Structures are given as structure tokens and as C-alpha cells.
Amino acid sequence: MIRVLLVDDQPLLRSGFRALLDAEDGIEVVAEAADGRQALVLAREHLPDIALVDIQMPVMDGIETTRQIAADPTLAGVRVVVLTNYGLDEYVFHALRAGAAGFLVKDIEPEDLLHAVRVAARGDVLLAPSITRKLIDRYVTTGPLPVPAAAALKELTNREREAVALVAQGLSNEEIATRLVISPLTAKTHVNRAMTKLRARDRAQLVVFAYESGLVSPR
Questions:
Q1: Which part of the chain is the HTH luxR-type domain (predicted)?
Q2: Do 10 and 47 touch, CB atoms closer than 8 A?
């Protein structure tokens, strides 16, 4: 059972999402919060698998909520998926840096929302393709590598770099294995070792690193 925490200051949106998620086998909404501060309390109480968190909220916004969830060892199993409207790319990018596992736009189709919850629950990257390109083009630097990024790249083996680059393209471990002609277990090992070396909380942070470091080009 995938346990979900809904965090949004709009009751109508929360009720709509709850009705959709609760009607699906294998998914359960365990709590709702109207702001980030309340979300932290409920997250610690219910320990959900997924927290669907609105970017813009009163009291504590989605970025700070994401940051505090990511920093809390007791919430290590909670994957934050931020909810946004079109045009809020800057907030989304900061949320990914803060530790979000991915993002969705609020006008997502019902079947896509259900799929997204399952994707996030199994640990894969969740980046809405409709705004990913604009996000990357606008907010990823293409100049000289900052010292920390350059040093971090040197820590990765060639295979680990290849794996991270493919993660940034949205490939699963199985797809990475096919592309590199290795076993899925070996692909998973390369990804996990890269995450450890880069201190990445999840695959979404590997995507951010890949573009910021220049390992993958925006174009």
C-alpha cells in the first residue's frame, strides 16, 4: 500500500486528489495538510511514502517544507513530489535542489497522477516533460564548472558518469542496463554508488547534478 500525504492550501484541490487516490487499489491518503508546518507534524506522525506538496503555501512554502523533510532522518523514507502551475520553474528547481523527488503540474490528467505516485514510490525520477526543458534551459549554468561540481565529477568512474547521464535523460535502471549492455543489477550498483559519492538523496538530485555540472548538456 502506497501511503500519501496531501499538502495544499486549497481544500478543493485536496479533496479532488484525495477522491482520485483513495479510489485506486494500492494507494491510500493518510492525511491532509494546509501548509508546510502542519505537513511536517503529519509526516512525522504518519510516515507516508509520498508527500504531494504545493510549492506556494502560507506559513511555510513547499521549498522549505521539502528542505526540512529531506533533512529529518526520521523522514528518510518520505519522497516529496512538488505540485506547481506552469511558469513556476524557478520554484521547482529550488525544490529539486532542496530534495524533492520530482514535480507535477496541477492540471495533470488523473491517470498520469496515479502513474506518477507509483513511479515516485518505487524511487524513479519524476520530472514532468512539459516543463523540464524550459526549466533546464533557464536555470542550469553552462559556464565553467564550480569547484565542488568539478571535484565531485572526478570522484565518479567512467561507468558511473555514464549511468548518471542516462538517469538525467529519464532512463530506468533496466533501460540503463540495455543502453550500456550490462545487467540491471550492475546498472543499479553504478547509480547507487554515484548517489553515495555525490551525497544525492535520490535520483532527482542526480538529474540536477548532471545538468549543473555539465555532465549533460541542456541542448
A1: 149-214
A2: no
